[in-house]
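Table S2 (continued). Query chain:
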Amino acid sequence: MAAEIGPGPDIEHHHHHATGHRWLDITLAISAVFISLVSLLLAIQHGRAMEKMVQVSSWPYVMVQNANANLDGSPRFSMWTINNGVGPARVESVEMFYDGKAQKDVQALVREMLKIQDPNRRLHFVMSDVVGVVVPAREKVTLFELLPG
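Corresponding output:
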């Protein structure tokens, strides 16, 4: 005995309910599209603002500091760089200026600062190279220290 296939289950189709006023239906549709576009633009702008906030909150802030005396008052001259930011800093280059003139190296800088004219006078330094170094947040790297003698 063969089974008979019927027309199938009844499927209800929901149609959009119109208000009965064509101009009101068009106005509501345009308003919905407009509100959606404004919401999309606001979401994009908010995302950009959040990206900038994350960037700013992880910026490094590298400063150069120096000292001309030890805590006991004895003379000392040293210079260091410190990252006072909240993110790591990669030092790509260092330029030294004194009185608006570029200095070729630490020796030239110190000679200029101390007004040392004698080219035969030797200066004794402890130096470190910071170029290419990543300085973590709140860390310092000594650039140089002039030793007595």
